[in-house]
Amino acid sequence: MHVIHLSVECFPLAKVGGLADVVGALPRYQRKLGIDAWVVCPYYDKPFTRDNDFLSIAKGSFFQGSEELHYEILKETENSLGFPLFLIRIPGKLDRQEVYCYPDEAEQWIAFQHACLDWLKNSGTKPDVINCHDHHVGLIPFLTKYANDFKEFEKVKTVFTVHNGQYQGWMNWSKSILLPAFDTWKWGLLDWDGLINPLAAAIKCCDAFTTVSEGYLQELYTQANGLEGLFFSEAAKGYGIVNGIDDAYWNPAADKLISVNYDVESNKKGKAKNKKAFCEKYGLDETLPLLTYIGRFAVEKGADLLPEIVVNVFSYTENKISIFILGSGDTQIQANLQALLAAYPGRLATFFGYNETLAHEVYAAADMILMPSRVEPCGLNQLYAMKYGTIPIVRGIGGLKDTVRDISEKNGYGFVFSDATSEEAVSAIGRALDYIGQRGKMQRVRRKEMELDFSWHKSAQQYVNLYNQL
């Protein structure tokens, strides 16, 4: 079976969030199951594209409105990611350094989707399934069925994976002239509340849609930024498949980015050595429990609560804890955290930005990770943390609810709280600190969570089962 994954992110080509980690791992695990899985992404002027060899395999052109666009298809020659990677380069559209935040994103993603279908058509490539990831490629299920130039793809099955339903790619109907010519009788499939909505179009037109956890699938029926009724009406073709992690890359026993490697048996000494090296680097007290937050400074992540949580945790614990925060995003949240550094020397440290190596170091060193999310379709940080023996403290929502079981439950291994408030988060942190003080229990929990299997093996098989069903 031939499956093509379409995405604007793929680790290590271009990463902004968990979407990149999924697309960078899932196809590799599917290939182990006998699926001929490819990945097609936009071209970015980034280190990966500069440091690896690519072969130009095709060129073409098409009109986007009145503008003629020329594209080039580049194939990574060494298969270094474990699957064929194809990049689409369009001068002035798909050749930039960043993934998002450009004013013409709608034009970029329309061009990406149009170029991909044009290339597949001209090369005679007809996959069995096209798996589209998030709204940036949400027009594909519509275009394969109703675009005049791509009738040959009408029978190709489309699966749409919702990584975050809050972002939908809305665009004014004036942009419709930029789309490939399509059956205008079907315009309603593109429309939602008077706008072209790529996410809504994908849900209407795809053969099946998946969400990145079962919990998130259920939440979309009541919280989907205006699409609740649509998700409910299309529920028969919805599947919740929890994300996995790449257990070859996220593995403390073999991780080349951390100070000392360790496994389940040696986790106590291994984490202690990593914590010592980390705390020396950032001026923190290694004898204190270390709490961390890793992620975007965004309201949906609950990051706006962090400054208040920091103050209250230090007050509650009488400064008998260290906190390290790694993230970037909302500048006001960052400024509020920056202002706290002087008040808690040797207790609070931060790194503003994204640093892959540092993230690995933090997972290996920290005792606890906090995720106070308001929205969390799956969440990968808690999975990475548990693989490294770091206890998750999470709000019970979406994928966090699916993957973290509270310590009070049978076979529990984390700390779960209900509401996205500072009070609830601090209370959960307090419970975790009390537990950490009981060393024998702490070691048993660490062993338990490190032995949990959240790898892609099971999830990749669920995707394959769905493809076969279609």
TrEMBL record:
Pathway: Glycan biosynthesis; glycogen biosynthesis. Keywords: Glycogen biosynthesis, Glycosyltransferase, Transferase. One of its GO terms (molecular function) is alpha-1,4-glucan glucosyltransferase (UDP-glucose donor) activity. The gene is glgA. This is Glycogen synthase. One of its GO terms (biological process) is glycogen biosynthetic process. It comes from the Bacteria. Residues 278-434 form the Glycosyl transferase family domain. Synthesizes alpha-1,4-glucan chains using ADP-glucose. PANTHER family: ALPHA AMYLASE DOMAIN-CONTAINING PROTEIN, GRANULE-BOUND STARCH SYNTHASE 1, CHLOROPLASTIC/AMYLOPLASTIC. It catalyses: [(1->4)-alpha-D-glucosyl](n) + ADP-alpha-D-glucose = [(1->4)-alpha-D-glucosyl](n+1) + ADP + H(+). Residues 2-230 form the Starch synthase catalytic domain. InterPro entries: Glyco_trans_1, GS/SS, Starch_synth_cat_dom. Its EC number is 2.4.1.21. Transmembrane segments: none annotated. ADP-alpha-D-glucose binds at residue 15. Belongs to the glycosyltransferase 1 family. Bacterial/plant glycogen synthase subfamily.
